[in-house]
Each structure stands twice: as structure tokens, then as C-alpha cells.
Write a structure and sequence with these properties.
single chain; 2 domains; 11 helices; mainly alpha; Arc Repressor Mutant, subunit A
Length: about 200
């Protein structure tokens, strides 16, 4: 795409005049606006693609770039809001995963796995959105809570987290509860329920 991540990091909306102005230029396929939104959503979408296509030959970064390139080529495709764009991007990646399953699976095995792919995709999306939120964990949470949540989303269990942090398992559980209380102010009810499931399920 000609857009590279550099020392600037993720480019936030605050660096432009308004979200709607940026989106307007994006809809007109302005390269700079396109690049800004690509970088803005990249980490979250990359995590989502990585979760869906884990243990496959598909590179998450290529999948994210491909869905943006499809949008670039469809000049008639416009978005009403950044949320509309974000939802479209998630749906595009999910549909690629569905197509991958259709190609890989056969007959009854395909029918069995396709039943729960929607739930799996939804869970991955929630985790991705939590991952995006936790990118600001140092600002939202106490240091130990932030470290604990990041380790959990990386796949470590309670005992492993307690060992890495030098804490008792009961202390880790307490930090879970504290993190939920803080993040509950930043999550929808649905996502908060998913977070509780991920941490205590």
C-alpha cells in the first residue's frame, strides 16, 4: 500500500481537524487520509486476523492490507462514519476466514465447524477490541493490573501470571476484579460480560 509504520506509531484522530473530515478524504481515496486510517486500525485488525488465521499459512498483515486494497479499488464504496468503516473491515476479515474454512473443510466436517465459526469470530473481535483498549492500559490501569491483563490475553493462565508477577494466585484474582471495575467504565455491557468470561470463565 505504500504505508509503513514508523516512529510516529499509531496516528490518532486528534492530529486532524475532525474525524468526519478525515473520513471524507478517505472516501475520496486521498492517499494521506487512507494511510492515516490504515495505521489507526492496523494493530486492532492485525490482532483479529492473527487470532482467526492462527496455525494457517496466511499472514495477518497481508490480510489486513488486502481488505484495505479492496476498498481502495472500489471507488464507489463510501463510509458514513469511522465506526461504519471499522465494522466493514471486521466483516471483510471475517468473510475471508469463512471462505478459508469453506476451501479447507469438506462435507460433514465443514458443516460441524461452520456452526461455531460465527461465535469464534465474535469472540476474536471482542478480544481485538480489548487489545486495542489495553494498548492504553498504562494510562487506564495500575501497572500491575495492566501487566496481568496483557499476560492473560497472551495466553498465560493464572498460575503462570502469578509466577511471572511474583504474586499469589489470589492476588491475581483480586487484580482481575480491580481491572474489571476500572475497564467497566470504558466498555459496553456486552463487552464487559465478555471480559468477565475471558478472565474468569
Amino acid at each position: 500500500m505504500g504505508v509503513e509504520k514508523n516512529s510516529i506509531g499509531r496516528i490518532g484522530f486528534e492530529e486532524i481537524h475532525s474525524e468526519q473530515a478525515l473520513l471524507l478524504h478517505f472516501n475520496e481515496r486521498d492517499p494521506q487520509a487512507f494511510g492515516r486510517l490504515y495505521l489507526h486500525f492496523f494493530d486492532e485488525l492485525h490482532y483479529y486476523a492473527k487470532r482467526l488465521f492462527q496455525n494457517t499459512e496466511h499472514a495477518p498483515a497481508d490480510i489486513v492490507q488486502d481488505v484495505f486494497m479492496v476498498i481502495w479499488g472500489k471507488k464507489e464504496l463510501c463510509f458514513q462514519s469511522p465506526v461504519h468503516l471499522k465494522n466493514y473491515l471486521y466483516l471483510s476479515i471475517k468473510n475471508r476466514y469463512k471462505d478459508y474454512l469453506k476451501h479447507r473443510l469438506h462435507s460433514r466436517k465443514y458443516m460441524e465447524e461452520i456452526k461455531y465459526y460465527e461465535e469464534e469470530a465474535f469472540t476474536c473481535q471482542v478480544e481485538s477490541e480489548l487489545f486495542s483498549l489495553l494498548s492504553a492500559a498504562d494510562r487506564l490501569l495500575p501497572r500491575e493490573c495492566a501487566r496481568m491483563l496483557k499476560l492473560y490475553l497472551q495466553g498465560y493462565n493464572i498460575q503462570e501470571i502469578a509466577g511471572q508477577l511474583g504474586k499469589s494466585p489470589s492476588t491475581v484474582y483480586h487484580q482481575h476484579a480491580k481491572a474489571i471495575e476500572i475497564l467497566g467504565k470504558h466498555l459496553s455491557d456486552k463487552n464487559l460480560k465478555i471480559l468477565i468470561f475471558l478472565l474468569f470463565g
